[in-house]
Specification:
This protein is of the alpha/beta class. Helices cover 41% and strands 14% of the residues. A 7-stranded mixed β-sheet has the order 3-2-1-4-5-7-6, with helices on both faces. The longest helix has 15 residues. The mean pLDDT is 94.
């Protein structure tokens, strides 16, 4: 299957990156290289792009698409949480722009064998973004305790029927191991009232999201790397992050706010005594959303939000 992915908020992300021909840029989630292609073609002879992805299929597809710019592009098969080590290995200390396009690619959703989609009945419960890892979604569904499943579905899926869904999963797996997306979808549907299903969207959507996030440590990777990415920016460098659900967006929003105003002094203090300095400013006070035309052309863009942070002109 051809690696096909429509890059969301493409024009907006490129505009906010403010690409300089001789700048150094990092695309931490290459995917189909839609964003990277637009970055690369704006670079001059001294410019550089480091593209990263933990999905081997994405790395292959990106390498093919970016071949015309191979003189200024380096592609690394790695998770963006390793960004500092990757840049160091390339002899790079700082970057002028870093981009993350989070979530699942169109290719991953459409490739049945990857097991990301709840609409594929016979797909294996895989959901690994990095297929080098051993743990799969099937392992989580069949081996996690009922309590752990409940917490995952409630916290990462924000599903109000999490307790009942976890109970149904544990009950079903006593009969036989749950191996396909279709089997899991049927179990989830049985745990949610029919009346709710008529108006609440696909019953399995939230649970599949929750399992995927848990399996790939998506929120941990984001939360643990944001400070590092901000510190890796050159003065006036920008960090652009596209999120697709409220959990990701909340983490990014909170981090940008804290990076802009880290002071922990009580509000009634006349001057700051904690000594914590601002790292820069949040360029987007409100998230940038896709235009109606983009949503009409790509329904998966509907939930996308772009937030941008700019490093201070001076570093202390």
């Amino acid at each position: 299957m051809e690696f096909n992915h429509k890059s969301v908020l493409l024009e907006e992300a490129i505009e906010y990156l403010q690409i300089k021909p001789d700048g150094i840029y990092v695309d931490g989630t290459l995917g189909g290289a839609g964003h990277s292609f637009e970055i690369a073609k704006r670079l001059g002879g001294n410019g550089r792009l480091i593209g990263m992805d933990q999905d081997e299929d994405a790395v292959r597809a990106a390498a093919a698409r970016l071949k015309p710019y191979k003189s200024c592009v380096t592609i690394v098969h790695s998770n963006y949480c390793n960004i500092k080590e990757v840049l160091s290995g390339e002899g790079i200390q700082k970057a002028d722009g870093i981009l993350l396009d989070l979530g699942v690619s169109s290719y991953q959703l459409d490739a049945a064998e990857r097991g990301f989609s709840y609409r594929e009945k016979n797909a294996p419960l895989d959901m690994r973004m990095d297929q080098r890892q051993n743990l799969t979604a099937e392992d989580i569904v069949n081996e996690y305790s009922e309590t752990d499943l409940f917490h995952i579905i409630r916290n990462y899926g924000e599903d109000r029927f999490a307790k009942n869904i976890a109970k149904h999963i544990v009950s079903a797996r006593k009969e036989r191991r749950i191996k396909t997306s279709g089997e899991l979808t049927e179990i989830i549907a049985a745990a949610i009232p029919k009346k709710v299903q008529m108006t609440g969207g696909h019953p399995a959507k939230r649970t599949f999201q929750a399992i995927r996030i848990e399996l790939n440590h998506e929120l941990e990777a984001l939360e643990n790397t944001l400070d590092e990415m901000t510190d890796l920016l050159n003065p006036n460098g920008r960090l652009c992050i596209i999120t697709f659900h409220s959990l990701e967006d909340r983490i990014v929003k909170k981090h940008f706010k804290k990076s802009e105003n880290p002071c922990t002094c009580p509000k009634d203090f006349p001057v700051c005594v904690c000594g914590k300095k601002s790292k820069g400013r949040c360029v987007t006070r409100k998230p940038v959303l896709p235009k109606e035309e983009e949503i009409a052309a790509n329904r998966r863009a509907k939930s996308a939000k772009l937030r941008v942070f700019e490093k201070s002109e001076r570093e202390d």
